[in-house]
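User: I've been trying to design a sequence by hand for this structure and keep getting stuck. Would you show me what you'd pick, starting by listing the structure so we're on the same page?

Assistant: Good idea, let's start from the same input. This is the structure you sent:
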């Protein structure tokens, strides 16, 4: 799979309830006490994409296989996690392994659900979690910087390049800013990612509101949205309680009726998954035929041979060329043959950068 979002937040904010709904399973225990999640739970969820169903219908595909994202439910952090409070060090290690963070923030009042800080305050809660991530980064990076600077003084070119990234990141962390704010440019971000810093990971905020606020949000979610906007981040407002109810409804018509009754156009989880997909800067290409219509995930900017490798490593090793049809042309001309007859199928080489929605067929020789 290769692309994962870690669901983080304070205890009792609705992380495990959200995870259960995301994966439509009860794999994560949802309970009203801190640390009910002791090990990270992993679930893969389909990325909503109406293009796949349209292509499958045109090609009369026997099977439809959507692309997926992986979500990891990570137990709640508490103040002092960077010093090992709660189960801090263990959980910080789990966060280090994911590609992005889905930060669930409590934006609902409920006297029956205990808040670890005693009151609901989304900005304070976000600051608590992000401070712990930054403190953990600061400690690990300061230790690493000593060895890197020593090698750089000895003339090591790689160490000098790494030091040029570490120095501004350390300055940002010491100023109370996350590592991701310290660098710009694709190459620097790539170098930063190699450091595996917690506060360098892209973040999506999920405002978990009460049922009545799921459609329009509330004062708490709006405060969170303002906070995120100032940091170039996105917020998705959901009600984990509603999503948990939806997860129990298998009939699409029942789901639609339930959502309509609540004034919702779509499930909040669909928006969460799409937002996570966007956060990781991913795109989808399709392979379509009578046997199956299959969606595949790659990072934006991926070239044809590497996209072929997502299907099978032999496709990349023996890549010859790619046959590509845009989704728009595939639909406009009634499928693959119609697009070919209209001259809308392109032959692309190894330098071709795959576009979102491309219908691809790879030629290879091993």
């Amino acid at each position: 799979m290769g692309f994962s979002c870690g669901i983080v937040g304070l205890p009792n904010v609705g992380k495990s309830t959200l995870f259960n709904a995301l994966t439509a399973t009860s794999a994560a225990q949802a309970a009203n006490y801190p640390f009910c999640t002791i090990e990270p739970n992993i679930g893969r969820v389909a990325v909503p994409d109406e293009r796949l169903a349209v292509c499958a219908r045109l090609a009369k595909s026997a099977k439809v296989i959507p692309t997926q994202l992986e979500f990891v439910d990570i137990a709640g952090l508490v103040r002092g996690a960077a010093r090992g409070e709660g189960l801090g060090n263990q959980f910080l290690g789990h966060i280090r392994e994911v590609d992005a963070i889905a930060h669930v923030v409590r934006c609902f009042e409920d006297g029956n659900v205990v808040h670890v800080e005693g009151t609901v305050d989304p900005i304070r809660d976000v600051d608590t979690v992000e401070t712990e991530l930054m403190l953990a980064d600061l400690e690990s990076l300061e230790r690493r910087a000593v060895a890197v600077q020593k090698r750089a003084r000895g003339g090591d070119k790689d160490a000098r390049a790494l030091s040029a990234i570490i120095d501004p990141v350390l300055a940002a962390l010491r100023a109370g800013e996350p590592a991701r704010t310290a660098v710009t440019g694709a190459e620097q971000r790539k170098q930063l990612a190699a450091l595996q810093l917690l506060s360098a990971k892209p973040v999506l905020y999920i405002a978990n509101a009460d049922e009545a606020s799921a459609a329009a949000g509330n004062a708490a979610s709006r405060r969170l949205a303002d906070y995120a906007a100032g940091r170039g981040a996105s917020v998705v407002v959901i009600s984990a309680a509603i999503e948990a109810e939806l997860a129990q409804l298998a009939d699409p018509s029942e789901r639609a009726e339930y959502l309509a009754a609540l004034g919702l156009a779509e499930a909040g989880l669909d928006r969460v998954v799409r937002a996570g997909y966007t956060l990781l800067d991913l795109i989808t290409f399709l392979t379509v035929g009578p046997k199956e219509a299959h969606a595949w995930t790659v990072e934006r900017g991926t070239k044809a041979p590497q996209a072929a490798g997502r299907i099978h490593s032999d496709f990349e090793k023996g890549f010859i060329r790619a046959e590509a049809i845009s989704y728009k042309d595939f639909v406009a001309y009634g499928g693959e043959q119609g697009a070919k007859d209209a001259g809308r199928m392109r032959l692309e080489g190894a330098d071709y950068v795959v576009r979102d929605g491309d219908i691809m067929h790879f030629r290879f020789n091993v």
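That's my pick for every position. To get oriented when you compare it with your attempt: The first strand starts at residue 4 and ends at 8. The longest helix spans residues 122-153.
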